[in-house]
Design a protein that fits this description.
homodimer; alpha/beta; Rossmann fold; UDP-galactose 4-epimerase, domain 1; 2 domains; seven-stranded parallel beta sheet; 12 helices; globular
């Protein structure tokens, strides 16, 4: 089984590759991995099969065709530039997040017409396809009215994915990821970074800044669950999904206050004391327009699962990123 | 005031041009009209200003740029290939219905960046952006999960329109048109054609075939109201609309049986007797997946209006297409 991952140098791409190497896919061994990103992805450790790690610009002519020439059985299309960059650089955002995806879909369609090729394609979408005003919880049938170019590009790719799947060119499924929390690594400048920072940093004895009130409610899942969504999407029976191929994933709706209470339970008062409140009106306003939580009824019925509490999310982080120690 | 209409040779384009010539736009005189389509549009009669009638392929390189070089104040973008053709000819559908629209939007964006140009752009979308299963009535916040490539292309253009408007490149508004009834002209092969045929033909003493049961419910508006939507969209204050720029228009939800009862009231038993029932399972199945009706709360609040009864729709047809005679 040959698997292609775009965006393979990113956090999710690396974790999906590692999981495939560890577990295979649906009981089948992974014999080949093609990992692509704008920088050379690292090959996952302990993989005995063939691995091609490529640094390519997915938006360049002929690249999608070249990737599909290898006829991967499963494609995880995770590559994207992030929200802030897509908003600031309009043309680059559309080129990478929309045109590259369409190039990939078109290369698959041409291969399908040539020889009946029909891979499983798992697309990483985002709750950014939703835009305020948003109800809580957001039903599966709620409209996509994004308020960013990034969200617009993801919503367009969702529509293309459903149409190409309906025509039988590939077997696609779009996964609307919640905000990933706790994001490993170091604090970054994303406006949403604090959701992870206020847990990850205190867990290793470092301070973290909280720019919003405790009452802010948002929609989270762990990196571990996000990888689980991807693997399940790659292996599930899509016959049960029908033509509506884009699914809001399950997750955990929690306020910042509830995050902090979970930190207190798992890591104690000393960890909580490392959170410094520095209210930021701009970030608070942005957060108030983000998705507070989803029903995710269809995805749950289709077997997607996520954490029930922030205690679990914190413990998953300790196990997966801190070797179980703190 | 200079106005550009794409798809100007179509039924709606011709009627919009005629209305502009008759009434101007928001009290301003129309001094120039650019009418484009794949065939040369006819100039509206009685127009003293400058009119350019062009037969162009909107998807050809440089065409959008050329149209925008004239800096039209208002653009009615109505051009599209129809649902059946877009479904059968995948590449052509995406080229005309998506890429041509994006070319037009991009030409406007470049002009905006060059000199601050920012026209009003009215886009003809469709209830085909919705896909079964559909509730009745469909709320304004219902998701767009089209089941045709045509609907997919319209839904994508809606997303682009909202994003380009949000960035300030133009002042766009997308109008989700109900099925137009009574469509003037001769019976065509569109699966939805019977909704008009069973009224238009008996009104002039001709027979018509009804392929579905009387219980089929659908969403209609007259050509007159559709023109009214376009004119209102071109002149209304968009400040009240906010970032959600695509609106499901008001219309009339009616069963086929209710259509026939209205025909009986307006034109008598002899007209109704000209309807011949020839049930067609395929057409019936298609109809059952179409939109039965919308709440259209936002559009009504923003001043869009449509008929309250099929009697009104039939009378509008008699006035507008049959010189008030029958």
């Amino acid at each position: 089984m040959h698997i292609l991952i775009t965006g393979a140098a990113g956090m999710l791409g690396r974790k999906v590759a590692a999981r495939l190497v560890r577990d295979g896919l649906a009981g089948r061994e992974v014999s080949g991995l093609t990992l692509v990103d704008v920088i050379v992805p690292e090959p996952p450790s302990g993989f005995p099969g063939r691995v091609d790690c490529l640094a390519v610009d997915l938006s360049a002519d002929g690249i999608a065709q070249r990737l599909i020439d290898g006829r991967p059985d499963v494609i995880f299309h995770l590559a994207a530039i992030v929200s802030g960059e897509a908003e600031a650089e309009f043309e680059k955002g559309y080129s990478i997040n929309l045109d590259s995806t369409r190039d990939l879909f078109e290369a698959i369609r041409r291969a399908h017409l040539a020889d009946g090729y029909r891979p499983r394609l798992v697309f990483a979408s985002s709750i950014a396809v939703m835009g305020a005003p948003l109800p809580y919880p957001i039903p599966d049938t709620f409209h996509t009215t994004p308020l960013t170019s990034y969200g617009t590009q993801k919503a367009i790719c969702e529509l293309l994915l459903a149409d190409y799947s309906r025509h039988g060119f590939f077997d696609g499924i779009g996964i609307r990821l919640p905000t990933i929390c706790i994001r490993p690594g170091t604090p970054n400048k994303a406006a949403s970074g604090f959701f992870s920072n206020i847990l990850r940093e205190p867990l290793v004895g470092k301070p973290a800044i909280l720019p919003v009130p405790d009452s802010i409610r948002h929609w989270h899942t762990s990196p571990r669950s996000a990888v689980g969504f991807m693997i399940h999407a790659a292996t599930m029976d899509l016959g049960a999904v029908g033509p509506q191929r884009n699914l809001s994933m399950p997750g955990l709706s929690a306020t910042v206050g509830e995050q902090i209470e979970a930190l207190r339970r798992v890591a104690g008062e000393s960890a909580v004391a490392l959170i410094r409140r520095e209210p930021d009106a701009t970030i608070t306003r942005m957060c108030e327009s983000w998705a507070p939580g989803f029903e995710a009824t269809r995805a749950r019925a289709l077997g997607f699962t996520a954490e029930d509490s922030f205690d679990q999310i914190i413990r998953a982080h300790i196990e997966d990123e801190l070797d179980g120690q703190r």
